[in-house]
Amino acid sequence: MIVRIVQMHFHAHLVADFETMFEEIKENIREQPGCQLLELYQGADDAQTFFTYSYWESEADLNNYRHSTLFKEIWPKTKALFDRKPIAHTVNKIHSLK
């Protein structure tokens, strides 16, 4: 299992645009082969900061999504809203906390 966390910071006047766009595309991303989970969180201390949290069956599934037509369609639209470069972390999930 691959876990991907992406921290994004948006221009203040474009936050609502991102929230609207995410609502429109989230189900399409969740339907991508290998996507097990996709969630969006807003920063507790900064309303312009968001985090996407996703689980993928394998690194190949994540890479296939990142090279998909869907990603190529939504990435430029998302990128145009950023205030700064996003920070992405991809890790292998080894254990769950219980």
Automatic annotation (TrEMBL):
Q: Which InterPro entries match?
A: ABM_dom (IPR007138), Dimeric_a/b-barrel (IPR011008)
PROSITE patterns in alphabetical order = ABM
**Residue ranges of the ABM domain?**
2-91
Q: What is this protein called?
A: ABM domain-containing protein
Native source species: Nonlabens marinus S1-08
